[in-house]
Amino acid sequence: MTQRAAVILAAGKGTRMKSEQPKVLHTIAGKAMVHFPIEAANRLGIERTVLVVGHGAEAVRQETGDCGIAYAVQAEQLGTGHALLCAREALMEFDGALILLAGDVPLIQTDTLEDLVRQHEQAQAAVTVLTMELDNPFGYGRIVREDGAVVRIVEQKDATPSEQALNEVNTGIYCFDARFVFESLGKLGTDNAQGEYYLTDVLEMAVKEGRIVEAALLNCPEEAMGINDRAQLADAAERIRRRLNREHMLAGVTLIDPAQTYIDAGVEIGPDSLIHPGVHLKGKTRIGAGCEIEPGVVVQDCLVADRCHLKAGSVLENSEIGAESAVGPMAHLRPGTQLLGENKIGNFVETKKAVIGKGSKASHLTYLGDCELGQRVNVGCGTITCNYDGVNKFRTEIGDDVFVGSDVQLVAPVKVGRGALIAAGATITKDVPEDALAIARAPQKVLEGWAAKRRAEQKK
Ligand code: UD1
Ligand code: CA
Fold first, then answer.
1. What domains does the chain contain, in order, with CATH numbers?
2. 309 catalytic residue (yes or no)
3. Which one of 90, 155, 206, 394 has the largest count of C-beta atoms within 10 Å of its C-beta?
4. What's the CA-to-centroid distance between 56 and ligand 1, angstroms?
């Protein structure tokens, strides 16, 4: 096997996206589009990947900074030939198969590229172009063959009516002999309808030099689908979602309606988990085995251990959920929440920077922020940790086996010792020692007959 390198073109502006953002940074399944071809290339065992950047170069570099790739800058978009030529310096030493991809063609599969490179190497070709047959080839470069062999590619705007009738087209993906292509690109002209340096012209040069030019026909044209506008972006996202969801299902995850389940690339889910429609699993989320996630749950960057039940409408962000916990319906776990296991966080409970010990529960209508709870704590309905005085945040600490009655305010900083009991309706401003009872409410006054008397007065 010869060495392999990849060049990914991503300098274009993407005018039809009508966006402030460079096209290749628009996301699919939670990931900037440009990562899809980068990863497809990586899986080929690539020596080096060069990303050609131009519009929004700095933002694109930043997004891909951890990908281990090199960059080439195309300051002015003078055509695809010029774009590849910009990568020459970054591949000075390279001799072998050069795979050319586009940053806005995210559906391309590694298997397809593997077949392309293999055909290229076996034929010892100078160029192997990936082609497809389209019922409506409008806009694409047409593959011109003579006696079956590819002789050149003609662009839509340069094509004669009979060439326009050809329906085998250029996908824009190729494998080149690196030495050959960089030499040829230096000789390109711009004598064409668009006044651009056409990469496609190197095919004709190869033929003229008696070099071998191959074409590999793509069976599934979806893979070469380019993203030019947001309608195509949604279309590609749907196809990628379908692929990802299928992988999860084949790995043992039940998706009740995969068409309505939104799982970002890279999210992991254990077997025998059951996911209802309308669920969004985002970012670096990992879901354990045997979990159930009900409709409308949004999980961003969370670790959810085995056998958890996330009930309808809950939102979880940057949190860790220990095994066998139940969350929701309608709970909001904000960043820094750590449920240590067997917890119950019920409806309309909000947590933030809250470490909640094993077996502890807050079943209804509660805010727990900047706090640490021990094990088996029961937090009554309507409890609030008052953690903020308008300037600073303060912590609440609650020991094991504490019982917090309903409608309690814990004015932080405050500590409640293990085994203590806090009576309903208390506003706790001082520490509560272990095993104590704390009551902090106005004593009840009863005025016999008062209400009846008032009713009588009102009738008059
Ligand atoms: C090109 C091909 C055409 C093929 C089509 C497939 C040429 C001359 N034509 O068409 O045969 O059917 O792709 O989609 O190559 N880019 C740059 N810098 C530039 C120009 C383009 O980085 O100066 C990038 C774009 O961002 C895009 C890719 O190259 O990712 C293809 O460019 P685009 O303008 O979409 O392709 P066409 O020239 O229309
Ligand atoms: Ca163009």
1. 4-224 (3.90.550.10), 245-438 (2.160.10.10)
2. no
3. 206
4. 17
Give the SS3 label for residue 365.
strand
Average pLDDT along the chain, 460 residues, taken 10 residues at a time: 92 94 97 98 94 97 97 96 98 96 98 98 98 97 97 98 98 98 97 97 98 97 97 98 98 98 98 98 98 99 99 98 98 98 98 98 98 98 96 97 98 98 98 98 95 95
Scan for tokens 């005018």, then name that residue.
Answer: 15
* Cβ of residue 131 lying under 6 Å from some atom of ligand 1: no
The rounded distance, in Å, linking the Cα atoms of 23 and 63 is 13
The encoded tokens of residue 64 equal 């891909």
Ligand at shortest distance from the CA of 226:
1
Buried b or exposed e, range 369-406, using 16+ CB within 10 angstroms: bbbbbbbbbbbbbbbbbbbeeeeeebebbbbbbbbbbb
Distance in angstroms (rounded) separating the CA atoms of residues 65 and 70: 9
Residues listed for the chain: 460
